[in-house]
Every structure is written in structure tokens, then in C-alpha cells.
Amino acid sequence: MVHRQDFLSKGLESVVMQPHWLYVATFADGTDKVGTAADPRKWGRLTEQGAVVGRYVARAVDGRVVRHLEDAMTDTAGLRQAVRASAKAAGLTRPVDLSRLDRANADAAAAAREVLADLGSDFSDDDFRIVDEQWQAPARDEVFDGRRTAYPLDTAVGTHGMTVRWCVGSAVGSTVSEDPDSLYVADLSRLRGRRIERGDFETALPAMQEALF
After folding, report:
1. Neighbours of 99 (CB within 10 A)
2. In the chain, how long is the greatest CA-to-CA distance?
3. CA dist., res. 163 & res. 132, Å (int)
4. Which helix (H) or strand (E) holds 34?
5. Residues 6+ away with beta carbon under 8 Å from 146
6. Please, what is the Cα angle at 56 between 86 and 17, to 5 degrees?
7. Which residues 6+ apart lie within 8 Å of 39 measured at CB?
8. Please, which residues bridge with residue 102 across strands?
9. Is the dihedral of CA 114, 23, 37, 42 positive or negative?
10. Given this model, what pLDDT does residue 120 score?
């Protein structure tokens, strides 16, 4: 963690020493997390994370300060700093109530700002300022429309033929030729660090029982 290191390489220092944002993100399954984004990556970071709603709660002078604030959010407000990619993808297979998630995110962000206000005496006035700004999510009407099913195969092995319809973080909504009327949510984080081959492949779906509820 950069805020616990005495030495930074020049490349890392150039990133760490620019202004950073502290945000609270909420995902499709209702999980909240606190995170940080360098100033140029302010909007894109939450998109990459696969957030459904999010709010910025502070702007810090640099990456060291913002990560101290992030730790305080975890220690005091109980906000986690990581959510598994598989959990994010699984949340997208269930009905998503955007209004409920937005209210939950607003509550979590408000709690975070209260913690930040109490931290003021531990920092100088120039270290950070509290903000109240909502992240503008990409248009995702297609994502939450209709029924979505978990992709039944491990994307890290075998062959797969998917037509990607949308992307939320590392999760994609896709169709397969064997069942073109169904939308499958696949977790592509499993492909990190793996060599993939593009081609005219097909997904061989296993026999599946329809969910009763």
C-alpha cells in the first residue's frame, strides 16, 4: 500500500501525487464498498469496477491522503474495500431495484461523510475536502431489462461462443447460438492473465433445470 511505503518509484510517484477521489460504490447485489480514483480516472474507475450507483465523498490532495481516508472508512464506517468479481456478476443475474440501490448508496455515502467530518482534526485543511457528488453511470437500460441467467460454464477453460450484448465491469451479458433467446451473465475476470484464441467457436450448454422461483 502506497501510504505505508517510504519510497516510491518515479512512475508510481507521478500517479500517487496527483489529486484523488474517495467514493462509495454500490453493486447489483446491494453490496457497498469504498474506493479511490486518481483525478484523471474519476469517472472511468467506477465503470471498470462494475458499480451500479456511486457517490464521491471526498477529494484528497494526493493518493497517500486518500488511502488513509479509505482505511478510516473501513475501520469506522465498516465499508469494505473489495468485492469479488464473481459476486458482482451473480448480482446481475437477479432482479435489480435501481431506486433501492440508490437509496442504500446515498445512506452509505452520508455515513462516510460523517466519518470524514470527524477526521478533520487529524488532517490539515489542505489535505482533503468533503464533497457530495453523484457518479453518472453509463446508460444501462438493456442491462436490467428482462431475465438474466448465470453463464453455466467456466470461462477460463474450454471453448466458448458468446455474442456480447453489454458489459458491466468484468461481467458481460451475452447470447449463445444454441440458446439465442436467453441472456447469460458471464464473469470474464476469470480470463485475466490467460491467453485466449479468437475464432468461430460455440458454447456447448449443459442440461439445466429451470429455476422454480
Report:
1. 8
2. 61
3. 38
4. strand 32-38
5. 183
6. 95
7. 18, 19, 20, 21
8. none
9. negative
10. 73
Q: How far apart are CA 3 and CA 67, in angstroms?
A: 6
Q: Residue 136 is placed in which grid cell?
A: 453518472
pLDDT in tens, 131-168: 999 999 998 888 998 899 999 999 999 999 999 999 99
Question: Contact 51/137 with Cβ under 8 angstroms?
Answer: yes
Hunting for cell 440508490 — which residue is that? 102
Tell me the whole-structure pTM to 2 decimals.
0.87
Which of 109, 133, 139 minimizes the C-alpha distance to 42?
Answer: 133
Instruction: Please provide the average confidence, as pLDDT, over all residues in the chain.
Output: 91
- Nearest Cα to 147, choosing from 213, 196, 103? 213
pLDDT reported for residue 124: 81
Specify whether the backbone of 99 is left (phi greater than 0), alpha (psi in -120 to 50) or beta: alpha
All three cell numbers of 87, joined, read: 459476486
